[in-house]
Amino acid sequence: MAKPCAVIGIGQTKYKSKRIDVSLEGLVREAALRALADCELTFADIDAIVVGKAPDALEGVMMPELSLADALGAVGKPIHRVHTAGSVGASTAISGANLIESGRYERVLVVCYEKQSEGNATWALSGGRSGGQGAGGSFAPWIRTYITRSGAPEHIGWKVATKDRLNALKNPYAHLHLKDISIEKVRESPMLWDPLHYLESCPSSDGAAAIVLGSEAAAKKSPNKPAWVIAHAKRTEFGQFPGRDTVYVQAGVDCATELYKKAGITNPRRQIDCAEIYVPFSWYEPMWLEGHLIAPFNEGWKMTDSGATELGGDFPVNMSGGVLSSNPIGASGLIRCLEAANQVRGTAGEYQVDGAKVALGHAYGGAAQYFAMWIVSSELNPTFN
Amino acid sequence: MVTGSDFVPTDDDIAIVAVSQTPAYRLWNDSEQMLIMRCVNDLLGSTGMDRNDVQFTIAGSCDYLSGAPFAFVSNIDGVGAWPPVYESHVEMDGAWALNEAWHRLMLGDIQTAFVIGSGKSSPGTPRHVFPLQTDPYTAAPLGLDYPSIAGLQANALINAGKATERDFAEVVARSRRAAMSNPNAQVSGDHSVDELLAKPHYSSPLRLHDLPPISDGAAAMIIARGKRALELTDRPVWIRGIDHRIESHHLGLRDLSSSPSTKLAGEKVGVHDGPVDVAELMVNFSHEEIILREALGLQDHPNVNPSGGPLSGHPIMATGLVRIIEVARRIIEGEAHRGVAHASSGPALQQNLVCVLEGGN
Questions:
Q1: How far is B355 from chain A (nearest CA, A)?
Q2: C-alpha of B265 from chain center
Q3: pTM (two decimals)
């Protein structure tokens, strides 16, 4: 039987274009020490460490858990490294949760990072080939397919981009603080990959995020409120084959179905209080609201358009500003997972959703083919009506 | 010699139910996916399982060997992912994928998992690639490569009075001789120690034959929880324990003539809680066998690396998993009842994993 697991400590660095003030070691250590301070622990209290990041080629360091072992207090301990493309941050959180749920460990430190300024992210995201189209170039045709299929008006994307940047103004760690952001500014920004404008795209960030996961006993001893990990799920499918639905992705539907079933959730829109969803390009908010069964098919954009996904709406999405405001790729999924935890712990500061008890953390990756999700709650055994 | 034990598995114990590996090739002139697919088809054939009966898949591979970011993504083509599958990936040797799968099956909600390790070293030059594992600020720019670091470690061993160059040659002679009966070996042969010692140094005090070959290859296994394991095979190999530990990456902070992380991992899994019939150690360079034997208390053990070890075939990212498979195979075939497998990662045995396996129904 899986043992209970909780997020007991959270730490983040400031996200920005270039963290030239720190080495890779300094960057991960900054997040790790903040997560440890949040639960009043030190490296000596940690039983195992899990590291996650996107391709090694982003920084040019091969299997970096080796050279980061000292900085993460891992010497003499188990440390392992997860890599599942863009979903890696959430996959790493789940990998850490598995260690606690196995009953073998009391406290596990999970650290994810990317220092994109050390390399060329668009080159790496194009599979290491020059002249690549980058991530936006891959996703834009699928976004256009979604718009055509659902009949969504063009302004939905601008609206998501504006909302997430307004939320980011409340988050001191967010990379982008665009004080004068507006729908007009998004619309007027240069077209990068039709239909995606410059301001509908995520930034390229340096940064690290960390959580301390604990057993039930460790959570009870912890000074601050835990966020209980009540369910997690992962699904993967092929990136391309004839007839593949790249918009309403089967792996994403299956992943959400499994997740809600494990959590005991029968009506995600009503029973989940808020969500941190991996939205690197504006349109992925309505696409994943549908693709993860929160909104009816072809109607995700109506949720966005109605204001339901704003702070203060009935299903706030990306309260922290999301990937559109901070994107250290390998950490972005873990940031979603830990921001969900912040909400149910009541530690989200100015972007706190009042009374949030159940939150979704989500990431996807590759050719929209890798999915990793978890549900956290303020209660160990929440009941849903 | 095959020894008995009073171990009685329960449904919470997890067993290897089938193993597969490709030969180690100097150049596999096809894709990494094809290497993986051969193993997967072999495993499905030997267990009679359908792809969709296997509930979790986890693979270990390395983008840098292929020279392409996200190289691991296409590896799922060799495993199958339609309908969508529950799957994960570690950028580590497949032995660490097994570690994660083992923990995952402990949760009890799923019964079976694929564990895969694969790598093609042939497209690149390992001497140029592997310095990227060292400290990116102080060491990598110097191009300090594996053979050079291994030479430093071998020298530390000699200076500590723990070994001589003749001892290294004896490891090589025995490994290559053992590999003559291993159909998956890439390098084998009958050499005298004096013949080997007559060769010139390559990375002093090491000679070229003290290094592993450059190999392409894959390995995979299916593991299952108690009852399901017994349905799938009448010769399960139980995973009695896996532990792994890391050391500092600053070579100057370590005593390179010993391996405290291997020693600690070995103690945690109870290597000597029962008789050790066979041991397969990830000896990347001949001198490492002496360090690892000491760390695991196997100094005079007569049955270490009967496959020939990595010195006879080194498909990086599968090499560690192959050690576990070689022990499991001997337990399946009844040559051994209980054995120890070891995997390592990083320069000069920086990180080490120890696994204890045991047979019995």
A1: 14
A2: 15
A3: 0.98
Say if the Cβ atoms of B85 and A238 lie within 8 Å: no
d(CA A364, CA A268): 19
Residues A315, A117: Cα–Cα separation, whole Å: 34
Contact B133 A366 (CB under 8 A): no
Q: Across the interface, do A57 and B104 touch by the CB < 8 Å criterion?
A: no
- Whether B93 is covered by a domain: the verdict is yes
To the nearest 10°, the Cα dihedral for A74, A78, A79, A81? 180
- Distance separating alpha carbons of residues B283 and A280, to the nearest angstrom: 44
Q: How many CB atoms lie within 10 A of CB A70?
A: 18
Structure tokens at A380: 């160990």
With contacts defined as CB-CB under 8 Å, which chain A residues touch B248?
A: 69-70, 75
CA distance A364 to A328: 14
Q: A233 to chain B: nearest residue by CA?
A: B86
Per-residue pLDDT tens digits for B237-267: 999 999 999 999 999 999 999 999 999 999 9
**CATH says A6-121+204-221 is which class?**
alpha beta
Task: Note the helical H segments in B233-318.
Answer: 260-269, 286-296
Least confident of A21-35, A108-122, A212-226, B164-178: A108-122
Q: Which of B85, B104, B132 is the closest to A60 by Cβ?
A: B132
Output the 3-class SS for A63-102: CCHHHHCCCCCCECCCEEEECECECHHHHHHHHHHHHHHC
Number of domains in chain B: 1
Query: Across the interface, do A250 and B84 touch by the CB < 8 Å criterion?
Result: yes
Distance CA B170, CA A320 (A): 61
Residues of chain A neighbouring B260 (CB-CB closer than 8 A)? 76
Return the residue of B nearest to A128 by Cα: B68
- Binned at pLDDT 50, 70 and 90, residue B1 comes out as very low
Which residue type occupies A184?
Answer: E
CB contact (8 A) between residue A62 and residue B129: yes
Task: For residue A254, give the DSSP letter.
Answer: H
- With H, G, I as helix, E, B as strand and everything else as coil, classify residue B280: strand
Contacts of B117 in chain A (CB under 8 A): none
In a domain, B113, yes or no: yes
Tell whether B100 is covered by a domain. yes
Report how far residue B348's alpha carbon sits from residue A42's, in angstroms, rounded to the nearest whole number.
Answer: 28
On whether the CB atoms of residues B239 and B260 are closer than 8 A, the answer is: no
**Domain map (residue ranges) of chain A:** 6-121+204-221
Q: B233-271 in b/e burial notation, b at 16+ Cβ within 10 A?
A: bebbbbbbbbbbbbbbbebeebebbbbebbbbbbbebeb
> Which residues in chain A touch residue B87, judged by CB atoms under 8 angstroms apart?
234-236
The CATH number of the domain holding residue B85 is 3.40.47.10
Kindly determine whether residue B245 and residue A77, on different chains, have CB atoms separated by under 8 Å. yes
Residues of A in contact with B109 (CB under 8 A): 2
Give yes or no for residue B134 having a pLDDT over 80.
yes
Candidate from B69, B81, B260 with C-beta closest to A128? B69
- Tell me which residue range forms the domain holding B49: 14-125+214-238
Contact A370, A236 (CB under 8 A): yes
Minimum Cα–Cα distance from A249: chain B residue: B84
